[in-house]
Design brief:
Mean pLDDT: 85
Radius of gyration: 27 Å
Strand order of the largest sheet: 1-2-3
Shape: rod-shaped
Order of helices and strands: HHHEEHE
Structural class: alpha+beta
Number of domains: 1
Number of helices: 4
Largest sheet: 3 strands, antiparallel
Number of strands: 3
Helix content: 40-55%
Length: 145
């Protein structure tokens, strides 16, 4: 049998250490899960704006191409195609978080989305949401015959 040695004033120290370790693991787990969610949202928003930019770049000015054999982007048609692509993907096109800029040579689609932190809010209640921003630009080109 082993004898138990009771040190004066050391009762409950391991409990405090374990409580601190559990809080650290919860904190690190919250950071990792919330960052994983933010990166996943970033990838989704990037895919949405990439598809919208490619769809917008297909809006070339047919009359100019037929007359001069030059590929020029029709800005109104490019914006309409980009908006249609965003709407088909379920992205709210009327929100101020989506901007589409088109000129005769390129189209740029920019979108942002707020991702709320979930587990980190338990430990840090005043933490602001993460703002995810993605932008894509595309130019119309024709493949050689």
């Amino acid at each position: 049998m082993t004898a138990r040695v009771d040190i004066q004033g050391e009762g409950g120290t391991m409990l405090l250490w374990m409580l601190m370790v559990v809080m650290m693991v919860l904190f690190l787990g919250g950071i990792s899960l919330d960052l994983w969610r933010a990166f996943s949202e970033r990838r989704a928003v990037a895919g949405i704006v990439d598809a919208a930019a490619i769809a917008g770049a297909s809006g070339i000015d047919d009359a100019t191409y037929r007359a001069t054999n030059t590929v020029v982007l029709d800005p109104a048609e490019a914006r309409a195609r980009a908006f249609a692509s965003l709407a088909a993907q379920g992205e709210p096109v009327s929100s101020p978080a989506v901007t589409i800029a088109a000129d005769g040579s390129a189209i740029t689609v920019t979108a942002s989305r707020d991702v709320p932190f979930t587990l980190m809010r338990v430990l840090l209640p005043d933490l602001a949401d993460a703002r995810i921003l993605a932008s894509a630009a595309s130019t119309p080109t024709l493949d050689p015959p």
